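Justification of resources, computational component.

The compute hours requested in this renewal are based largely on the per-chain cost of generating structure records like the one below. Each record pairs the submitted sequence with a full structure-token output. That output is archived, and it is also reused by downstream analysis tasks.
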Amino acid sequence: MEFKQVSKLLEIYKKHSIVSTDSRNIPAKCIFFALKGPNFDGNQFALQALEKGAAFVVVDDQEIYAANKNNPRFLYSSNVLKTLQELARLYREELAIPVLAIGGSNGKTTTKELIKTVLSTQFRTHATRGNLNNHIGLPLTLLSMPANTEIAVIELGTNQPGDIAELLEICEPDFGLITNIGKEHLEGFGNIEGVAREESELFHYLKKHGGLAFVNSDDPWLETMATRLDRMISYGRGEGATTTAKLLGSLPGVSMELDSGIEVHSQLPGAFNFPNILAAFAVARHFGIPDWITKTAVESYVSQNNRSQIIEKGGYTFFMDCYNANPSSMEMALQTLADHKGDAFFILGDMLELGTYEEEEHRIVVDLLKKLKLEKGIFIGPAFAKALGKDSRSFMDAELASAYLKNHLPKAGSLIFLKGSRGIAVERAISFILENPESSKFQAPNSK
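The structure output for this chain reads:
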């Protein structure tokens, strides 16, 4: 489908502004894009989509199109994915609203949600839902923006070189923020230098297009990158930053004192959330939102979906930070756990996508636990099992760990910290408490 044809598709989209790529979920009068994957071909479900109520289908299988070319609801493209991306870009341009893109190794989603919460106090704000932050999810995010949206906050995901550059060409941000640079997806990037090169694409784009960057000046990688920027606003603990604050405490939630003298007491646990909160204040100030409004919004924000989430259940406080994990986020989280004054118990799952660094990085975590004197806990996954050797606290999967925990729980009142990659699903180890409707009657042991 050529540019003029995508422009025509945009006019169709304005009348049928719901987009679907899943033939199992076809809203009435939507446009179905027949995407292909390693185990499926959406072209095979195009007719079914129309039967379910789709207004139009976009296909790139020539035979299927030829068999239905007399049906005006069949639209042909040489590449359905590229057409979806181009349609999203054109729609973003037509709305002509400010777009803030957020990248980084850790804390992207939390930072995005905080900024969305704050901006929503003054503007009709649209943000990436969940983790729809890749080459398919980002276009769907843009195409789900209501026509009256005043500002968009878009998350940029990556696991291999080139991903960020591709996403930037679609969302065309005016503003950008990189949370930090850490050891993420080392299997795809090779080393932290590779991560930095990939994430820096956002700053390169902003410089080229005259955009404004929000820079975490406490991150040495970002501080170096910022020297090449023409327009930036910094935030951090240092006095040289545009927006500064002092960390007052990290548990049960981050507390800080802003440079304006205002104290903020959030519901987000862990010192690693300090820069995420400060980023929200930096962005809010730029868009003219007073600190007191931002303070109220930040303090009301409660994280969900196992991202810095606190759950009180069964006589325990669960610190759920197990949506994902990499060596950098694991280190920051364990540093926070070490600051806890009461009884603490950890459940750590393998960190995935580390490639040749897998064994080394898991051993580093084990050594860090010893250094921090964090001794009570268990491990889940083959990588930790290898790093630990014959340690009896290691389990190959969450189900085996759960069976053990049912008879070996820590004493009542303990903080139970969970961290691991999504593929390990460490939360399943405690599902017998979290998913138990009788958990309020659950009796945690008084001592251990």
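The chain has 18 helices and 21 strands. The domain at 309-441 is CATH 3.90.190.20 (Protein-Tyrosine Phosphatase; Chain A).
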